[in-house]
Amino acid sequence: MEFTALAEKRVSVRQFKSDAVPVDHIREMVRLASLAPSPNNQQPWRFIAVTRKPLLQEMADVVRVRLRALLPVTLSEDARRAAQRVEWFSTFFAEAPLVMAVAKRPYRSVIARAVEGASLSAADINAMRGYPDVQSIGAAIEHLLLAATELGYGSCWLSGPLIAREALEPLLGIAAPDQLAALVTIGVPAAPPAAGHDRRPVDEILRFLE
């Protein structure tokens, strides 16, 4: 598929058929995701393919518990409906045939080694540079989404479940200093995805400095 068609076809899908995703397709999606750029080619990503239904349900349960703990005891009707919507968006991954957990590995830049002994720490420099390790994780996830689309799957990038990161990481076998960065659902869409994207026009988001 040409890139223009691929980018236009990719949409967020949150409801899937129960069809399993073949292992060779999972491997190919991860291979393509790993072609994303990363600072100094450190490739700070690791991928965990979760297909075990009881584990996915347990993951959703810990997210649900954490989310409910964060909400006020007394809610207005409008707030209650919003809370239900947030809970569903944060836990629907339990119904997906495949959830890809993306973990971030520690990153140490060349410039951090160059300024050893200076007042700036490696963390300070990483922040000043806009967290290039996190940016590269985002690039890898976008590659993963496009690879899934190319293979005929729907997908969705989730950050909401990270409110329960501390509970999710042991379930996924992620140990410090690695850290859970995102979840991505992948599967055959339950229904044909809606065509088109609701996006701002290019003239609204682009300006030239000539």
In a nutshell, what does this entry contain?
This protein has 210 residues and is α+β, with helices and mostly antiparallel strands. Helices cover 45% and strands 13% of the residues. Strands 1-2-4-3 form a four-stranded antiparallel β-sheet, sandwiched between helices.
Topology, please?
Blueprint: H1 3-9, H2 23-33, E1 45-50, H3 53-70, H4 77-91, E2 98-104, H5 110-114, H6 122-128, H7 132-150, E3 154-158, H8 165-172, E4 179-187, H9 202-205
Antiparallel strand pairs: 1-2, 2-4, 3-4
Helix pairs in contact: 2-7, 3-8
Give an account of the 3D structure.
The structure is a single chain. The protein has a single domain (3-205), classed as NADH Oxidase, CATH 3.40.109.10. The model has no long low-confidence stretch (mean pLDDT 92). It has helices at residues 3-9, 23-33, 53-70, 77-91, 110-114, 122-128, 132-150, 165-172, 202-205, and strands spanning 45-50, 98-104, 154-158, 179-187. The protein is of the alpha+beta class and 210 residues long. It is globular, with a radius of gyration of 19 Å. Helix 2 crosses helix 7.
